[in-house]
Amino acid sequence: MSTNTTNETREFIIIGQERGASYCLWDVAPAPADATKRAMALEEIEVDAHDAFGTVHTQYATSAREAVDRLVISLREMSGIGSYALADDSQLDNYTAEPAPQPATAEPEPFGRAHTLSATRDSGYRVKASTTPGLPLFHVNGLPVQSPNETRDRVRAGVINSGLDWPMANVLVRISPITGKDGSSVGTSGLDLAIACSVLAAAGQLSGECLAGAAIVGELGLDGAVRVPYDLTNTIRTIAADGATTVLVPSAAVDDVATAGVRVIGVSSLDEALAVLTGHWHHPEGCAHCGDDCDPHRPCTPATLCPACEDDSPAPF
Questions:
Q1: Could you give the CA distance from residue 310 to residue 314 in angstroms, rounded to a whole number?
Q2: Taking a C-beta distance cutoff of 8 angstroms, is the pair 118, 216 a contact?
Q3: pTM (predicted TM-score)
Q4: Exposed, middle or buried: residue 316 (CB in 10 Å: 0-12, 13-18, 19+)?
Q5: Could you tell me if 203 and 167 are in contact, meaning their C-beta atoms sit under 8 angstroms apart?
Q6: In 41, 51, 266, 302, which residue has its Cα 20 to 30 A from 288's Cα atom?
Q7: Phi/psi at 74 (nearest 5 deg)?
Q8: Residue 97 CB coordination number (10 Å)
């Protein structure tokens, strides 16, 4: 059986090194069709190529061979050297490969919003994340520190090194004090885990409703491990005073932060935190509808039943 494919013009990314009288090809491949992914890929490739004293070009063509040939012709004209050609040590595997069929248009990245609660030792915070179309940027506003760079680096590295996909989107996290009064900068690393979980929920990698019913406190390591932030005991007291009844904390500190009136659940990694949230293990035992097989929903609290429990509750006389 044979298949007919139409060679359509597409953009190729070409990586190599200009050597005055020749061009050494290192690699050539189709550019991502999605504009955001293309920008992300080019940024990373250009850094690597620059470090190796190479260059990055883009060229529209129907095949990798045609794209490279067009680039070489252009470089020949610019150099004025009639013998300008590919260097003998060029990497030609992708150059000589048969053109691949044009891939189907990728499904759009999910965009949305999510929020949860967290705290430092002297202030509770609302953590709200949004992912919107655009270049893959990551901003954290409202941290009570002069520079949020360390927080952003820990969160992004922790997500990626946990084997999760960082959203190819414009990611914005807004952090605001629950009481309207900012706390000190001490212990702000304890907001890391809440930031990571809210970003992943906003990007559709878990339901935003899974975050309901729990505050989240923990520093995120570059490897995705959850570490104990400074003065966690007082941090738990602070978030409890702001109304939290269940708090996810680092496993290493569960016995140290047990506080009357607050249910404490230990997690040792970002992956484990997501398992707790998606499995509804953070919801109070009084909710009969929590479990692995039920859909995400608002949990029961001592004051209010979840919608499913309300529907099943006896009618008043």
A1: 9
A2: yes
A3: 0.63
A4: exposed
A5: yes
A6: 266
A7: -65, -45
A8: 13
**Hey, what are 208's tokens?**
């935003």
Q: CA 304 to CA 198: how far, in whole Å?
A: 24
> Angle CA(180)–CA(184)–CA(189) in degrees, nearest 5?
105
pLDDT tens, N- to C-terminus, the chain (317 residues): 333 444 678 889 999 999 999 999 999 988 887 776 777 778 778 888 888 899 999 999 989 999 999 999 999 999 999 999 999 999 998 898 876 555 444 444 567 899 999 999 888 999 999 998 777 789 999 888 766 788 999 999 999 999 998 988 889 999 999 987 776 677 889 999 999 999 999 999 988 888 888 899 999 999 999 999 988 988 998 898 888 888 999 999 888 887 656 888 899 999 999 988 887 777 766 565 565 556 666 666 556 666 666 666 544 43
Residue bearing tokens 């090809």 = 25
Bridge partner residues of 140 (DSSP)? 173
Residue with tokens 């109070």: 284
b/e map of 18-27 (b: 16 or more CB within 10 Å)?
beeebbbbbb
Of 3, 167, 8, residue with least CA distance to 103: 8
